[in-house]
Design brief:
zinc ion binding, alpha+beta, PPR_At4g14850-like_plant, six-stranded mixed sheet, three-stranded antiparallel sheet, PPR_rpt, about 5% strand, disordered N terminus, Serine Threonine Protein Phosphatase 5, Tetratricopeptide repeat, mitochondrion, RNA binding
Length: about 650
């Protein structure tokens, strides 16, 4: 008995061609066929895909499930779409009817090779589909960001009568994004509860992640608390959710609780927690976490080392940041950027430039757009406007291999503005190849406030209010400028406009860490247990400092009241309360580290310099923009702020 096969390779000696007019038709005794599957599997396992395809052609209709399975798996491994298409075509040509599993492998192959149209065509042509087939296609849509296609396919799957599993739900939840994403996610959540999958770790993790990314951290916490078992991934996800939303105290409190419950931690947990501690500037807690990392003997993960650099710098300990950076066995561009940003925020312009030059000399990594931003920002905060302009113009010529983006132009505006070259900054803004953003106009308005340029500030401020009518900070800075100029009617008009648009100014708050406890103060705070003592201390310091030359800057008060009342308002600023508490609660000579959620005012900055000079304290003030390291009454900002 003979059979005919089409073949496209050199035949063994015992194969004889027939007298057929087709030169590729040969006759071979059935007994001459070796078992195809083991040989094919061996070729595929050795990565010999080309030889395996020749064997497939040789076997023809004798190909079996095991052979196709081995071939498709190797095509997936090698992302070999053309070879996979040949396998698919061979199935069709030989009238092979693959089981659902092989259909699904074809879907996986096409999706891995970014051919979603082919994958969808396979799914639509399948005579029978199971949950794995549907989930494979839904996953592909989600990974490509095709959220609506993923959700529509999920609905189609439900209508077909196929029951989703935990992987289907976990995947679908990742597509619940955008304006209506949270509502869709809640509907999926309801279905999950009905099908009793809410306690599964994969589903729980995806639910938690969905709510956290939508800013619904309380709903994420509700999911977390209802899970019967919580692994390190879930614990890390909820801590990370709090940290990413700036809810740093909540992240720290939850970590402490979970630690008491015996939670294990990995490097991602610690990196997320360090992000929270960076926001709080809680140095003592940060050191404690660092000790945990050392004791746990985790490998030197670059991401963890980068987080430590960031944490120490934001807690005011630049020395520790540099020490970690210098000890890293491997450094990425993110590592360099982290330490450059650290020096920049501390106003160390010369050190930023030196470090940037070292980076280029060592040639470990190439600078990226964040690198140049950090360098320009460092020059801006350090008063090195000429050096900053030189670096920017070098960037424009392509010397660093990075094209200037709008953020780099914004840095130049900030650079000129901080240096008092406000008119030049405005001209530069007008000549930019980009439309100025609200952030750029905001930087220029801030410069007008610092350098008391009312004319340009008035024009820039009005434009900014059109761009960002709901940003309370813009109203405050413009009000400050008007108050300095004595334009109280304009101040009142701005206040009325804020009421009309329901714009609410974020309350200022400052905090100081003592013995791993964060003490928070609000303006004119009366809630702290030692409030009477703190208020009396502020008054005492004010009297003492005035005798040494301190003059309250009444222009920082945005109310048209008498000078005595303005001075009283200034004494209630949260920065002063935190500094006074630090002087009361710590021994002489201990550095004071105060963090402000907003930008500190000029008067509080001056007050802190007198605390440093007359009380012999090193004062570290961190606001939303930068660090002010004050020693002996001299601030690291050099008044460039």
């Amino acid at each position: 008995m003979l059979r005919k096969i089409n073949c496209f390779f050199h035949f063994p000696k015992h194969v004889s061609f027939s007298s057929s007019s087709n030169p590729c038709t040969c006759q071979l005794p059935l007994s001459s066929f070796p078992p195809s599957s083991p040989y094919l599997k061996s070729l595929c396992s050795n990565g010999q895909l080309g030889e395996a395809l020749l064997e497939m052609a040789f076997q023809g209709p004798a190909m079996k499930f095991e052979g196709y399975d081995a071939l498709l798996n190797e095509c997936v491994n090698q992302r070999a779409i053309r070879e996979g298409q040949r396998v698919h075509a061979h199935m069709i040509k030989t009238c092979y009817l693959p089981p659902v599993y092989l259909w699904t492998r074809l879907i996986v192959l096409y999706t891995k090779c970014d051919s979603l149209c082919d994958a969808r065509r396979v799914l639509d042509e399948m005579p029978e589909r199971n949950v794995v087939s549907w989930t494979a296609m839904i996953t592909a849509y989600c990974r490509k960001g095709y959220a609506s296609e993923a959700l529509n396919l999920f609905i189609q799957m439900l209508r077909s009568g196929t029951e989703p599993n935990e992987f289907t739900f976990a995947t679908v939840l990742t597509s619940c994004i955008g304006p209506n994403g949270i509502n869709l996610g809640r509907q999926v959540h309801s279905f999950i509860i009905k099908t009793s999958f809410e306690s599964h770790v994969y589903v729980g993790s995806s639910l938690l992640d969905m709510y956290a990314k939508a800013g619904r951290i309380h709903e994420a916490r509700g999911v977390f608390e209802c899970l019967p078992e919580r692994d390190v991934v879930l614990c890390t996800a909820i801590i990370s959710g709090y940290a990413q939303l700036g809810l740093d105290e909540e992240a720290l409190a939850l970590f402490r609780r979970l630690q008491m419950e015996g939670m294990s931690s990995n490097y991602v947990t610690y990196a997320s927690l360090l992000t929270a501690l960076s926001g709080l500037a809680a140095l003592d807690h940060g050191k404690q976490v660092h000790n945990h990392v050392i004791r746990s003997q985790l490998p030197s993960y670059v991401v963890l080392q980068n987080s430590l650099i960031d944490m120490y710098s934001k807690c005011g300990s630049l020395t520790y940041s540099r020490r970690i950076f210098d000890s890293m066995p491997e450094r990425t561009v993110i590592s360099w950027n982290a330490v450059l940003v650290a020096y920049s925020k501390h106003g160390k312009g010369n050190e930023v430039v030196e470090l940037f030059e070292l980076m280029r000399e060592e040639n470990e990594v190439q600078p990226d757009n964040i690198t140049i931003l950090a360098v320009l920002s460092g020059c801006s905060h350090g008063g090195l406007e000429e050096k900053g302009l030189e670096i920017f113009y070098e960037m424009e010529t392509g010397r660093f291999g990075v094209e200037p983006e709008i953020e780099h132009y914004g840095c130049v505006v900030d650079l000129l503005g901080r240096a008092g070259r406000v008119s030049e900054a405005l001209d530069f803004t007008k000549k930019m190849p980009f439309e100025p953003t609200a952030a750029i106009w905001g930087s220029l308005l801030g410069a007008c406030r610092v350098h008391l340029n009312v004319e340009i500030g008035d024009s820039v401020g009005r434009r900014l209010l059109e761009l960002e009518p709901d940003n309370a900070g813009n109203y405050v800075i413009l009000s400050n400028l008007y108050a300095y100029a004595g334009r109280w009617e304009a101040v009142r008009a701005l206040r009325e406009l804020m009421k009309e648009k329901a714009v609410i100014k974020e309350p200022g708050r400052s905090w100081i860490e003592l013995d791993q406890i964060l003490h928070t103060f609000h303006a004119s705070d009366r809630s702290h247990p030692r409030r009477e003592e703190v208020s009396a201390k502020v008054m005492e310091l004010s009297v003492e400092f005035k005798e040494a030359g301190y003059v309250p800057d009444l222009s920082c008060v945005l109310y048209d009241v008498d000078e005595e009342q303005k001075e009283k308002i200034l004494l209630g600023h949260s920065e002063k309360l935190a500094l006074a508490f630090g002087l009361i609660a710590t021994p002489k000579g201990v550095p004071l580290r105060v963090i402000k959620n907003l930008r500190i005012c000029v008067d509080c900055h001056n007050f802190a310099k007198f605390v440093s000079k007359l009380k012999g304290r090193e004062v570290s003030l961190r606001d939303k923009n930068r660090f002010h390291q004050i020693v002996g009454g001299i601030c690291s900002c050099g008044e460039y702020w």
